[in-house]
Amino acid sequence: MGVFGGTFDPVHYGHLRSALELVERLQLQQLRLMPCATPPHRGQPACSAHHRAAMVELAVAGEPRLACDRRELQRTGASYTIDSLKALRAELGDTLSLGLVMGCDAVLGITSWHRWQELLDYAHVVVMARPGWQLPAHGPVAQWLRDHQLADAAGLHQRAAGGILVVKLRPLAISSTEIRELLAAGRSPRYLLPQVVLDYIQAHNLYH
Length: 208
Ligand code: ATP
What we know:
Elements: E1 2-6, H1 13-26, E2 31-35, H2 49-60, E3 66-68, H3 81-92, E4 99-103, H4 104-108, H5 119-122, E5 124-128, H6 140-148, H7 154-158, E6 164-167, H8 176-184, H9 195-203
The structure holds adenosine-5'-triphosphate.
Adenosine-5'-triphosphate binds at residues 6-9, 14-15, 18, 102-103, 105-106, 128, 130, 172, 174-177.
C-alpha cells in the first residue's frame, strides 16, 4: 500500500502519472493520494482542502489502483504526516508493507517535519526524483537516506516499514504553482492536468 501526501493545489499530471508509474513499478495494491488540510510548512493553499480533495477524487475516478484519502480533512490543527501514518498503520495492521511517497523537493525539507525520524517506524519512504531537484550529498538528510536506503523495490515487500527507496520515474516538469500562475494570468493550463479537474476549477471559479 502506498500513501502520497501533497497539497494538490491543484492535482496535475505530474502527480498522477508518477502515482500510476509507482503502482506498476512497485507492485502496489493501491496508492492513496492524501491531500494535506493545513500544511504546517508552507502558506495557506490557494483553495480549500474541500476543493483540493474533490479535484483529487475526480482525477482518480475510474482508476481503481489510485484513491483519495481524506483523513487529514477530518482532523483539526496542523496536518502532520506522522499522525496520518500512525492512523493508517492502526487500520492496516502491523505486517502490511506501507510506503510514504514524496518528491525530491519534499525530502529536502524533511528535517523540519514533526517527529520526522519516527516516520520510518510506521512506513517505508519512497522518494521520487523530480525535474529541477537533486537529493543532497551531505548533511543530515543525506545521512538519513544512506542509513536506510533499500537496494531495490523487493526490499519494500520484505518488511512492513523502515526502508527508503529512491526511484526515477518519467520526468514531467509540471507544478501546481505554474498552473495557478497560468490561471491567474488568464492563460490556459489545459493538457497539464485532467480536463475534469479544469472543468471543476472553472465551475467553482478557483485560482483567478
Ligand atoms: P506547488 O507548486 O504548489 O508547490 P506541487 O506541484 O509541488 O505544488 P504538491 O502538491 O506540493 O505539488 O506536491 C505533492 C508531492 O508531489 C510532493 O512530494 C512533490 O515533490 C510531488 N510532485 C509534484 N509535482 C511533481 C512532478 N511533476 N513530478 C514528480 N513529483 C511531483
